[in-house]
Amino acid sequence: MSVSTLDKEMAAKLQELAKQAGMDISGAKIRRSSSRFCVGVEHGDYNGTELFGVGTDRFIWLAYKPNGSGKMRLFSGNFPDDGVVEFEIGNVPEPQSSEVADTWARFPYGVDYVLNREGYKLARGFDAVLYGNIPGGGMSRSASLALNLILTVLEVNGIEPEDQLKVVDLAQAVENDYIGSPCGQLDQIMILFAKEGMGTHYNPKDRSVKYVPLGKGGENLRIVVMDTGTVRPGLEKSTYKIRRSECDEFAALLNKTYSDISALADVKDEATYKRIIDEFSDSKPGHCERLAYIYSAQKRFYEMMDAWKAGDIEKVGGVFREDGVGLRDDYKISGPELESMCDIVRTVPGVLGERMLGGGDKGAAGALVMADAVNDVKAAVDNAYPRSRPDFADKYAVHVCGIVDGIKVLEGLC
Ligand code: GLA
């Protein structure tokens, strides 16, 4: 199905949902925000590495229409039991309070909280209905939602953000400060800047963003996301939080001896790396394993980038696979269902690489696959996954993803 057919179908669905919620969205615009697929370095963002990824065609569609008041009214078709979320601009529950912990409303509340805190003058509310098909865990559903809401609130209030990176910072603040999720900036960057057919390369040293097309010969590459059907709690409740603090702690410790190391990605030369491992492998074995992954994944990152530019997708897939082994064995951030998916697809001819995706523990795994192997991958998963993980036999899904623009505003559909 072409995206525009899907967009039309979604517009009809949003109108249906609006009716259900007793809202009128006729003439509304739709802001569509994508998901993302990180090619590298997974878990590199909060460790200071460069990043590379693409926007993928699983989306959140949000239809919005100013309502002439200072009130926000929102209804999510994914969480209908939460009803219509309604609040006066500037009047939301306290950050990280228990009353918001289990409702999707923490996102619009958090956006209102952060934008007000940052001094944006908000007075115009809107009615909105939204629906998404991004699986939870691995494809950045939360960042997509935070970005979508921020851009919509700013637009309705006639505010142009200073620059795009400011929007990234705001979206991260919604999650870090209001929701309490310790996420980095990978997701927000890879969605906000995503361009159809392009990879996005981000360098944290100067916060630059460059677009890199996949070189000639790469047309046969397909991105496959294998949703395990498991539900991952927020990052604040997962291994992610532990890994993050281990890495921060180790970087702070190293900084006492090596003043030029402020994040694990700063360990770049082999002599320094070896010295650190020698010194700490007995006293801090887990920390050394985390560093081992970041150190080698960072080295592979540059090889992967060269291969991407050259259209050498076998190499790109090979690096992706090696990263997966490092994430599983050294970084220890994968999970049993994610590894089942990887084990199932690894030996299918035409699968170039596979690994866990995103925050970890649960959610989705990913594979880089030759176009003509996609059906075999689906068949292998259908055959083996329900047997290996019967609890998720009717919940898993395989998504073949296109590389798309991150944010689009669609008019004339409602
Ligand atoms: C989650 C976080 C990101 C990033 C990835 C792992 O998606 O939100 O900031 O750390 O995990 O690469």
Fold topology:
Layout: H1 3-21, E1 29-40, E2 51-66, E3 71-76, E4 85-88, H2 106-117, E5 126-132, H3 141-156, H4 164-179, H5 186-192, E6 198-203, E7 208-213, E8 221-227, H6 239-257, H7 270-280, H8 285-310, H9 313-329, H10 336-346, E9 351-356, E10 364-370, H11 374-388, E11 397-401, E12 407-410
Parallel strand pairs: 3-5
Antiparallel strand pairs: 1-2, 1-12, 2-5, 2-6, 3-4, 6-7, 8-10, 8-11, 9-10
Residues 38, 42-43, 45-46, 140, 183-184, 186-187, 358-359 line the site of alpha-D-galactopyranose.
List keywords for this structure.
414 residues; alpha+beta; Alpha-Beta Plaits; eight-stranded mixed β-sheet; four-stranded antiparallel β-sheet; globular; binds alpha-D-galactopyranose
Give structural notes:
The structure is a single chain. This protein folds into two domains: 5-211 and 404-410, Ribosomal Protein S5, domain 2 (2-Layer Sandwich), CATH 3.30.230; 214-401, 2-Layer Sandwich (Alpha-Beta Plaits), CATH 3.30.70.890. The chain has helices spanning 3-21, 106-117, 141-156, 164-179, 186-192, 239-257, 270-280, 285-310, 313-329, 336-346, 374-388, and strands spanning 29-40, 51-66, 71-76, 85-88, 126-132, 198-203, 208-213, 221-227, 351-356, 364-370, 397-401, 407-410. It is globular. The model has no long low-confidence stretch (mean pLDDT 96). It has eleven helices and twelve strands. α2 crosses α3 (141-156) and α2 crosses α4. With 414 residues, it is of the alpha+beta class. Strands 1, 2, 3, 4, 5, 6, 7 and 12 form an eight-stranded mixed beta sheet that branches. Strands 9-10-8-11 form a four-stranded antiparallel beta sheet. The site of alpha-D-galactopyranose has 12 residues, from α5. Alpha-D-galactopyranose binds next to α5.
